Structures are given as C-alpha cells and as structure tokens.
Amino acid sequence: MEKQIVAAFAEEGITVRRGRDYDPAEQHGFISSQRMGMDVFKNIHPEARLIVAEGKLHADLGRATAISLPEAETERRWQATTPQWPIMHFVLHGVTRDQMMARQKANHANVAYAPSAEAAADVKL
Length: 125
Prior knowledge:
Blueprint: H1 2-11, H2 34-42, E1 64-67, H3 71-80, E2 89-92, H4 97-103, H5 117-121
C-alpha cells in the first residue's frame, strides 16, 4: 500500500516522507505509544499534509488563510450547498483546491484559529 501511495503522490509532484521509519525489530513503522507519537508529530513540518493509511487517520493538516469573496458569490455558493451551515472561504497553503478535493469526501474543513501565521506554525500537536 505504501508504494501505491508514494507513486500516486509523485504523479501530483508531491514528495512523501515517513514520519517514522520502518523498524525491522518491531516489523512495522507504526507509532506505538503516545510519547512516540508526540515525538514524531513535533518533527513534521506545520504545512505538511498528513495521511496515515492503514492506521486510518486519512486527514490533511496544514495552514490556510480565510478570505472574503463578494456577497453575491458567497450567496451563490451557500445556496449551492446547504445554507443552514456556516460558510468560510479560505486558501490552503501548499495544497491546491484540486489536490484537496481529490482526497476529501466533501468540501468541509475543521478549522482552528491562530492570531498570526507565526503562532499557527508554532502549534504543538
């Protein structure tokens, strides 16, 4: 599975790097404790997309900037989706719209706010 994931991302011009190397003694590369997970995640670049294939996470983590669109465009998008839900327009850093939509089941995002790009980059997972 890993070779297929690496090849698929390479076709998109994206380099895949393991957060943790395969350990021959353990015969896997999984994160086996919370402490190990904290150590692995602190060394992942804050704008890196994250996918854990067989461990099930399959999420993209990264930074984005909220943007404003004209009211008419916001209303058009709202009516084209589900108007009772809030809407936010944003631009992802380092991830194109097509790359995001190719991986996602829907055009939804979970958002955590930071007061500045520097503060966002300093977040510890």
